[in-house]
Amino acid sequence: MNQTTTEQIFDAVTGDSDTAKGLSDDAVAAEPGNFLRHVLSLSASKLADGLIDPKLVLSWLLTHLGAGAFWVGLLVPVREAGALLPQLLTTPRITRCAIRKWFWAGGAFVQGLMAAGIVGAGLTLEGTAAGATIVALLAVLALARSVCSASYKDILGKTVATSRRGTATGFASSAAALGVILFAVILLSGFGDRYALVIAAIGLAACFWVGAAAVFATMKEVPHTGEQTDAVAQFALLRDRPQLARFIIVRSLLVGTALAPPYLVMLQPDGAFGQLGALVLASSVAALLSSYVWGRLSDRSSRRVLQLAGLAGGAVLALVVLLDLAGFTGTIGVLPVMLFGLMIAYQGVRQGRSTHLVDMAGADDRAAYTALSNTIVGLVLLAGGAAFAGLAALSVPLVIGLFAAMCFCAAMIATGLDEVQNA
């Protein structure tokens, strides 16, 4: 692809060629090509995530292999905790390196290897052996993902201008959603042998991760070494950077948009697997329709996006509670529509929080901000997930109502965030 074509695509996707805020002169010259590398690699990575989704794909595979409820129950906690909690320890190592693209590329490559290992386990093992092996492989995959997450926002900030970062991630999310939608439709249609489809999907995920690593390795990154910090010292940022502390509170309160979908499915226990399939479809369609829009809006005001997403998530969840009290959640089509609305809000949360953190942090602090935020939110997910699971035994609508209240509180607290795009 020649330079002219690259710049034409870049201009068409971003819609402008404004002065590149937040980039060095060398990074400005490389931005069009780097922007496309971000879109391609992130699209492939996000598509792989959708194809190996622990909530649907891996849980079905372990159930099919007779692994038992214990191993199935470990999938989501292992995936979420492994991807977030280690970042406080890995970030100091990343910031000591002037070039950081290799961390993301290496992490994506390892994820591809682990996905290939899961395919092998799915084809050759059964029962407890299959469960233990696949959960162990997923744990390593999650650790590799944590390295990608800890390094990505910093690399994005070094290679894409302030006004175009949300566009890059939003466009990638929408592109990846097309592939996941096709997979979800095939799963729900009953076409072909479901076991073969699941194995093939995980195999494709492995290929996409390896391809993403290869593309990202070509990123033209300007060398830059950040401040040397240790894991404990990073917690001092909460005291010294009140805007970071407020952002983490907002993001923690918005975890309800991620935790709520399984509880919506619990409101209609019959045909739970079909509802989970509908969840994947609803999430993918929501991502396709809204990610790019949320990304563009985030480039104008990520603070406003976090507010709007919080209000939207709270409104949808509150409506679910009212519909359940009125006895309508069992009506055909009601829950899928509610899931779709919630996933629209969730995409706003994802785009808003990512863009806000990157634009809020300086070049020296970006990796530390990311690690501290992800580690604290990981702890919130673990502790909150356990607490809400216990409350769900008493009342599922109560849990959903609490999620709604958290979203509304997040929207209110987000009003105190700075307009970082204007800084």
Report the portion of residues in β strands: under 5%
Which CATH architecture? Up-down Bundle
What do we call the CATH homologous superfamily? MFS general substrate transporter like domains
CATH fold annotation: Growth Hormone, Chain: A
Describe the model:
There is one protein chain. This protein is mostly helical and 423 residues long. It has a single domain, classed as Growth Hormone, Chain: A, CATH 1.20.1250.20. Helix content is 79%, strand content 0%. Helix 11 runs parallel beside helix 15 and helix 12 packs across helix 13. The longest helix has 54 residues. The chain starts with a helix and ends in a 9-residue tail after the last helix. The relative contact order is 0.14. The mean pLDDT is 83.
Q: In short, what is this structure?
A:
The protein is an all-alpha fold and about 425 residues long. The chain has one domain: Growth Hormone, Chain: A.
List keywords for this structure.
single chain; Growth Hormone, Chain: A; mainly alpha; 423 residues
